[in-house]
Amino acid sequence: MLLDFFPSRRLTIYLAKMFALRIVAVLAMLVLVLMMLDLLGKTGDILAIDGNGEAELWTYASLRTPQLIARFLPYSVLLATIITLASLNQNSEVIAMKAAGLSAHQILAPLLLMGMIVAVISFAFNERVVTRASATLKAWEAVEYAAVPDDPEARSNVYFNDGNDVLMAATAGGRADATVLTDVTFYERDDTGMITRQVSADRATFAAPGWRLENASAFNVATADTEELGETVVAPGVEIGQVELRRVDPDAETLAELSRSIDALESAGRRTSELEAKWWHKLSGPLSAVLMPLLGAVAGFGLARSGNLFLRAVIGMALGFAYFVVDNAALAMGSFGGYPPLLAAWGPFFLFLLVGETVLVRTEE
């Protein structure tokens, strides 16, 4: 009975192949145009660094392209749906299929199947490629394209409070007890907030508690004297959890890594609703590829000679773009605590699933 939902094998392959080719073509066009526009704005910043050249431009393009693919893949599915169904309608192929006894849902079934395949590929691509590219690109941007960092997870220009005192570092790399701070400066301050002593070192590791500075030197503000300290421990109040929580970036973390970050935040008593919404959206976001054929289906039905084909295509496009607007708004509301994280991530999907199904049933079934 499940196979009755699909048309014949030959027709299913024909429609799915046509849809897939158009998705690839539209996505390639969008990514190529957007990448060129992006490079126009970034080329000057990249080449401003001594030693950067064409290789660095290709590096930027290789890191930016996965982000563009992940962001605009759902739009490509929407546009490919409208182009595919409009061309089928224009050539009277939809009329032929309906005359053969196929329902609107059966005509859409191959497109929905291909949308599911695209959703699975999108999820895997986001987890394996986009997260790594995002982490590396953000770390590179943090050093103003000076050099691609060896550790993409390293964060630049971090600081931590230990009461009145402040621990600052140029970079923080590694994980858990293996975290390493570089170009470290520890400022000791009095109750009025004035700096009394400055301790500097090239490197610091976690000493449990505190941070062990190597080859440290201290500058006393009152006497203007400099003292060589060698190895010393500072900032006993700065726990490893504070360093871990500073590096949470949902776009640069996989589903499992983001789960661990959320657990760490919760154990520290921090607010996690924004991250939880992003966690759920890592699942609901790729599924928008399944939703797009349903929202754009209005473009494929109705008589082409009636003059309403263009209007139907506009309506389908409007429904698709309305979903993205509502989806972004719901995530923003979830970040502010207006919506629960689960509702913020999944509410727009199920809302427009019902809207698309209602439009299709009322107009074609």
Helix content: 55-70%
Q: Which value, in Å, is the CA radius of gyration?
A: 27 Å
Q: Which class do the helix and strand fractions yield?
A: alpha+beta
State the major sheet: 6 strands, antiparallel
What is the residue-averaged pLDDT?
83
Shape: elongated
The stretches of 5 or more residues where confidence is low (pLDDT under 50) are none
Strand order of the largest sheet: 1-2-3-4-5-6
Number of domains: 2
List keywords for this structure.
365 residues; alpha+beta; lipopolysaccharide transport protein A fold; six-stranded antiparallel sheet; 6 strands; 58% helix
Characterise the protein shown here.
With about 375 residues, the protein is of the alpha+beta class. It folds into two domains: about 230 residues, no CATH class; about 90 residues, Lipopolysaccharide (LPS) transport protein A like domain (lipopolysaccharide transport protein A fold), CATH 2.60.450. About 60% of the residues lie in helices and about 15% in strands. It has a six-stranded antiparallel β-sheet. Strand 1 and strand 2 form a beta hairpin. The chain starts with 8 loop residues before the first helix and ends with a helix. InterPro entries: LptG, LptG/LptF_permease. Keywords: Cell membrane, Membrane, Transmembrane, Transmembrane helix.
